[in-house]
User: What shape does this take?
Amino acid sequence: SKKRKRTTSASASASVDPTSSIEWALARSVLSSLHKCFLYDSDGFMDQEKFEKLVTPLVNTLDFIGLGSSYKRLSEELMVPCLSQLAVAAASDTMWKPLNYQVLMKTRSDHSQVRFAALRIVQEMLTRVGEPLLMFLPETLPFIAELMEDDDVQVEKLCQTVIKQIEELSGESIQEHLK
Assistant: This one.
């Protein structure tokens, strides 16, 4: 009978707002706490070992597509700030490279919301870290070129904004590299 009750409550909660689940509450708390750790890291808290343990699970939060209509708001409130601040705290090209690549891989998601959130993280990393991230332009440009032809108009518009941001940072046009 206990099993039946658990199954019933689990199926009942499936129709409730997914952001009210205990799993999401935990994920929200972890993302918020880590964001603050990265934001106030003034003594090198983020080292290679911690980074390697955190980067993949944090990037994979972009796959929380089950959040439905809450996804965009929560990605902007939690995922984008946390991951872009991780880039700032990492402060090393050996850590930026896997973070950049894993976020770029999310731009190939079947879900436009995930592609948009991943591109927002790229945009924020460029804003917060700036010019040093341009060293990853050769591996970033193929993803940007794909996003220029995205089915979702919002993703395509954001892609144009990111292109302008890259051009402003680099001081040169990247249009010829996107063909």
Observations:
- The chain has eight helices and no strands.
